Amino acid sequence: MAELAALPPWTVMALAIGVALFIDRCWGEPPPRWHPVVWMGHYLGALGRRIAPVMGGPAAGAARPFVAGALAWAFGALLVVVIAFAATRVVSGWPGWLQALALGVLLKPLLAWRMLRDEVRAVERALGGSTEAGRARLAWLVSRDVAPLCEREVRESAIETLAENLNDSVVAPLFWFAVAGLPGAALYRFANTADAMWGYRGERQGRDWSWAGKWAARADDVLSWLPARITAALLGLLGAAGRLRQLPVQAGLTPSPNSGWPMAAMALALDVRLGKPGVYTLHPHGRGALPADTDQALRLAGRVVFTCALLAAAWAAAGFWSLFR
Fold it and tell me: CA-based angle 21:25:30, to the nearest 5?
């Protein structure tokens, strides 16, 4: 018991990753009132109504909404980092096994593999009933207009979402936790949530986000840059190593500097076409997605989660992140 109480900090972090994924597997998401990402959403929603000008209202220019958005983002980011750092300090004096348990409990809401997996499965199950049911279920996952999508396009959109959110919801939080502990994971989750709520190029819900959300979008791009490529590399190595050389070209077909990487890697791994009608098509020489491809995509994503967890735990346990101090 004394040895467990004296675990090195990096071993504690590695064990915390295992605890977080165990909780995710067994229980999924905490109730909304206890979910820190929901709290972040409340903050972003309240501030968003103040920083983004109403469409058709008095001209606000670019500087004012941009500065307001940047300051609101910075204050929120500082807040979540300070809270995460304080929580880490509180548990730092506890026995090692209890630190690992506490950090795992705190890390869990910042990643969401089970929910992502279950939602993608739900789309495929709904498609088994009708295309309309599949569209309705897909609308829970994506912001695009699902009405014109056929059955194949609904399935492809779900697989695309799986690939993109595999990075956003699992790989990137684990990466930043391994690099900078709980504050790093919390900062990333705040940035990603802010991008989802503010990072629009034009109108959303009657407000103009062209400049108000620009800082949030760029901040998420920066924090997601390396994790997105790690996600793509793992998908490629575990699913289609022979097609990896095509990955950079395919990833560059999307408007996003990051999301195209895991989506292109998934398309190549499954040998299917994925795309957004009228915007881009990834792996255009692939076949149309079939029901079995959803199952294969979920299995591949599960292997990526397992491999990423092992790599993040090994990095944390070795204490390599101290090189960045």
Answer: 85
